[in-house]
Design a protein that fits this description.
- This protein is α+β, with helices and mostly antiparallel strands.
- The protein has one domain.
- It has helices at about 35-40, 55-65; strands at about 20-25, 30, 50, 70, 75-80, 85-90.
- It has a three-stranded antiparallel β-sheet with strand order 2-1-3, with no helix packed on it. The protein has a three-stranded antiparallel β-sheet with strand order 4-5-6.
- The longest helix has 9 residues, at about 55-65.
- The chain is globular and about 40 Å long.
- Zinc ion (ZN) binds near residues 29, 30, 33 and 75.
């Protein structure tokens, strides 16, 4: 079930992990849409830190009724499970 994803810079240790969602200042991103800069450094091109998505952010998003919280490229979707844990899945 592990899907091989393209790695544009195989010699650079990525700062972001696959199958996780991150908050990059405004858009939510995953490794597939974060961009090479964020992937390598954990910062966006604009210098904003790319931080792992938190349960609080998902709860806040759900309260605003903007639909499911997805990354910018709609690769992954985040929900809060019945046990209160963060659940990431492919939409
Ligand atoms: Zn994505």
């Amino acid at each position: 079930m592990t899907k091989t994803t393209r790695t544009p810079h195989p010699d650079i240790q990525p700062a972001l992990k696959p199958d996780r969602l991150y908050c990059a200042y405004d858009p939510f991103v995953c490794v597939e849409c974060a961009g090479a800069t964020a992937l390598a450094t954990g910062m966006t091109i604009g210098g904003a830190p790319v931080t792992p998505l938190t349960v609080g952010e998902v709860v806040e998003w759900a309260a605003s009724a903007l639909g499911p919280l997805q990354c910018q490229g709609q690769h992954l979707e985040a929900t809060v499970g019945t046990d209160g844990s963060l659940e990431i899945r492919r939409p």
